[in-house]
Amino acid sequence: MRIYKVGGAVRDRLLGKPVTDIDWVVVGATTEEMLAKGYRPVGADFPVFLHPKSGEEYALARTERKSGRGYGGFTFHASPEVTLEEDLIRRDLTINAMAEDDQQNLTDPYHGQRDLEARILRHVSPAFAEDPLRVLRVARFAARYCGMGFTVAPETLELMRQLSQSGELQALTAERSWKEISRALMEDQPQVFIEVLRECGALKVLMPEVDALFGVPQPEAHHPEIDTGVHTLSVLEQAALHKQPLTVRWACLLHDLGKGLTPEEEWPRHIAHEHTGLKLIKAVNERFKAPKDCQELALLVGQYHTHGHRALELKPSTLLELLQSFDVYRRPQRFEEFIAACEMDARGRKGLEQRSYPQADYLRGAAIAARSVAVQPLLEKGFKGPELGEAIKRERLKTLKAYKEAASA
Ligand code: CTP
């Protein structure tokens, strides 16, 4: 039995990047031998084991056949006869298809090191097509490594284009897709993920609602970049620059979907896009089974982002409705994320990236003011049930009126 370090751990060591998880491949072993050595099987029908102590993944060298159930929807052919080269050739990218023994001797039959130096994301072989998730993976690696100068090889982009057209992307499970999407959004340049997906036609399949934003104009006075798709990418870019969490990044990506539905004769205006977009946001949320906090924030940002921008002009009663919609009393953090998404939306405009956003502090102050209304004195006055609710609302409104006056004084 021979054991090699493979995949991301080898790639990232050669790139001089920190290595977090290590994957291992085991050549010349059987399942029985692994079990006898104390490795724990990850599942019943696929040849991946966890090390008894480190918990790292050890996979038997394998060739893969397309259909089936097993690990992520594959059946595997693993046997002690499968060589290291046979295992590596069915991996996604040349830079991920290198192996290293315990002396750090590199096995690199598909020239991963050459591609690392040339900064190219290139598929290893036609076996790339066995797993359509790789279209998303390549886009994610492009987002991660573009800062180092990496680009996708034209022949790989072409293969990704064919896979996108073949209808195979639709067969991906929501869970696998979301894992890639969420990781890609957390990269330093998540907009590159969307750009690469768009370039190979995958965006049209995965998120046609986002794809439809490209070519849709907005008024130049507010949006010097004009194109709604370009704006969306800039908002995402700003969200990453400002180290926003996943919830905010997801909301940024989806905030303007309604603009894709505006009839052309109304361009460049997008009346009520906040409302028309909601069903699209809901559809994308559900398609990828996004976590609840991402879903909720995306819908709220979609519906209320223009309120955020107009915060200083809002009537106290509208301000109160906004705060109530966010349940800011029990969920202050969610309102903070809304403010962040609005700010990213304001900064994601060509030439306006550095513009200040006084709305943010104003909204924060309004939330503090509304939350400062104490319930106890109202209880003491004998209010209860729906009357108590009304009394609290009146007090909050009074407080917000005073807040607005003080702010504009
Ligand atoms: N792999 C693959 N196709 C996939 C998933 C994984 O070929 N759909 C192979 C690649 O060789 C990859 C290795 O399995 O390098 C380990 O996969 P994973 O841990 O998912 O990714 P890493 O490459 O380690 O990258 P990351 O740093 O993003 O975790």
UniProtKB/TrEMBL annotation:
* Matching SMART domains: HDc (SM00471)
The molecular function terms in GO held by this entry are: ATP binding; CCA tRNA nucleotidyltransferase activity; CCACCA tRNA nucleotidyltransferase activity; cyclic-nucleotide phosphodiesterase activity; magnesium ion binding; phosphatase activity; tRNA binding
A Gene Ontology biological process in which this protein takes part is: tRNA 3'-terminal CCA addition
Alphabetical keyword list: ATP-binding, Hydrolase, Magnesium, Metal-binding, Multifunctional enzyme, Nickel, Nucleotide-binding, Nucleotidyltransferase, RNA repair, RNA-binding, Transferase, tRNA processing
The record's listing under Gene3D superfamilies reads: Beta Polymerase, domain 2, cca-adding enzyme, domain 2
Where would I find the HD domain in this sequence?
228-329
What cofactor is this protein dependent on?
A: Mg(2+); Ni(2+)
Task: Please report a single Pfam family linked to this protein.
Answer: PolyA_pol_RNAbd
What are the EC numbers? 2.7.7.72, 3.1.3.-, 3.1.4.-
Domain remark text: Comprises two domains: an N-terminal domain containing the nucleotidyltransferase activity and a C-terminal HD domain associated with both phosphodiesterase and phosphatase activities.
Summarizing the function annotation, the protein's role is: Catalyzes the addition and repair of the essential 3'-terminal CCA sequence in tRNAs without using a nucleic acid template. Adds these three nucleotides in the order of C, C, and A to the tRNA nucleotide-73, using CTP and ATP as substrates and producing inorganic pyrophosphate. tRNA 3'-terminal CCA addition is required both for tRNA processing and repair. Also involved in tRNA surveillance by mediating tandem CCA addition to generate a CCACCA at the 3' terminus of unstable tRNAs. While stable tRNAs receive only 3'-terminal CCA, unstable tRNAs are marked with CCACCA and rapidly degraded.
Query: What NCBIfam families does the database record attribute to this sequence?
Result: PRK10885.1
Assembly notes:
Monomer. Can also form homodimers and oligomers.
Miscellaneous remark of the record: A single active site specifically recognizes both ATP and CTP and is responsible for their addition.
What name appears for this protein in its UniProt entry?
Answer: Multifunctional CCA protein
Species for this entry: Pseudomonas arsenicoxydans
Lineage, broadest ranks:
Bacteria, Pseudomonadati, Pseudomonadota, Gammaproteobacteria, Pseudomonadales
